[in-house]
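Sample entry (142 residues):
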Amino acid sequence: MSKLELPATFSSPQDVDKATQSNYTEIKVAHTHLEWTIDWKSQTFHGHALLDLTAVGDVNKVVLDTSYLDIKKIEVGGDEVKWKMGDVVGTIGAALSFDLPKALKKEEVRKPTLLLLVLTHDRRSKLRSPTPPLKTALPLAG
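Predicted structure, serialized as C-alpha cells:
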C-alpha cells in the first residue's frame, strides 16, 4: 500500500473523505440538472445529467462516484470523450473517470460540463412502483 499523499489544503489524513473515490479536492460539482424518464414496467430510468464543474485547483481529469449505472456516452463541451468505469468498492460504488479535453485552471468553471446518458442496471437499484394507499373502513360515530 502506498503512502497517502495529502493535497496542500489538508492538514491530516483525517481531513480526507474516505467515503468517496472522486477527486473532490481538485474539482467540485457546482450544479446538477437531471432529466429522467421512469419506466415503471422495466423498473429502470434513463435520461441525462448536466453538471457544472468548478476547478478547486488545476485539473485535467474528473472522477465521480457512481452506483449501478450503465453509461452510454459522456460529452464535454459537445465533444464525446473516452471514459472508464472502475470496479465497485464496498458501499462506495464505482469510480467513473474521464479526462477533460482542456485542463481547467483553479476556480475556472465549465458549464454545462458533461452529458451522461444512463440507466439503472442492477436489481438492487431497480425502482419500486408506489403502493396504493391503504383503504381501511372506519366505523362511523353514531
